[in-house]
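Weekly puzzle thread! Below is a chain. First person to post its structure in token form gets bragging rights.
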Amino acid sequence: MNIEAVIGANYGDEGKGLFTEYLCRVKQNPIVVLSNGGSQRGHTVNNVEKNIRHVFHHFGSGTLLNVPSIYSKTFLLNPITYVEEKQNLEKDGIKPIAFRAPSCILQLPCDMFTNQTIEKARGFGKHGSCGWGIWETKVRNKDYNNLSFEEFASYDFQKKKTTYLDCLEWQIENRLRGVYEPLYTEELQYVKDGNFINHFIQDFEQMEKDVKVLDNDNLLEADLDVCKINIETFIVENGQGLLLDKKYAPIDSNGRTDVHSTPSSCGMLGVVEALGCGLCTSNIVANYVSRTYFTRHGAGPFPEEDQKIRFEDKTNIPNKYQETLKFGSIDETSAAQLLTRIAFDAVCNGYSAKVYNLIMTHCNEIEPYRSLKNNAKFFSYDDDSKKVVKA
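Winning reply:
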């Protein structure tokens, strides 16, 4: 089995969706594995043949090419996002196909509500959360109810509803009490409403029906006959980027790296965890993606920021949680740090990628810095994956 990993080299938004779709075009019989995080990802593909521009949240970026997706055990399943995105794709004539590992964690709407409520209460001290509830899902599963997708599927309708309400009540008492008053807001009444909960359970049951479960969390050992296709290449599509991983994140004003970073592993460690294959990395080609400049969406230290540069970005539009996308310049120092960062990530934690590559995107906006241009394996000059070219 050939394995291609697509990893963000910086703060996310580098062009991972674009390069994932390119790999789906050129690799034999691919399937895309969604690894860390969940539907907070926004991976953009501009498919010129179908005249479709789509931002992927809950499906792999090869979907417009009819490439199936696998949800790894480290990907959080969000039924509401899944059904909404599936319906949008079907309107464009696309029938997405997905499979799931048996240990996938279920994300509940109350996780998103709790996340959004806490982030709003932080005011100027915001962490930079995108409001999708990734951290709160992990907190709930660690401290209260380790709820897998499969376990929830085993419950009858009434127990599903009771379990959801119990989780919400725990979050009110343990995550929200004293943090944000008054608690009984219109948003809280909405996520407690019986009709809303029924809708969530219906979406869950639709996702359960659509997404066939594999027999093994170790995707290299799973019986893939259920996919009913010949699979030769796993393309592991990571979310976020190395500088949002607390192992690499810049230090904030309080000397910490964990406040404005993500709880998931954004580099090769996340790829290995998603595949569930221990340290079996001898076949992995690690592709690290960077724009020709830095971007950061949300709060947190951004030492590379340069307010003199700004580009149109159709995906990262301003929102109330992460506000406006910020831009930064790549200079000699940050270019050297970028190259060092990806070289370290490709060989750390006791494993080593077979090969690692640097991919530069948005080359039509800024000429790649010389050291990056000399080290890049692929370039892209716009958001059309057909125009990704080898150096």
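Puzzle host: Confirmed. Bonus trivia for everyone else. The mean pLDDT is 91.
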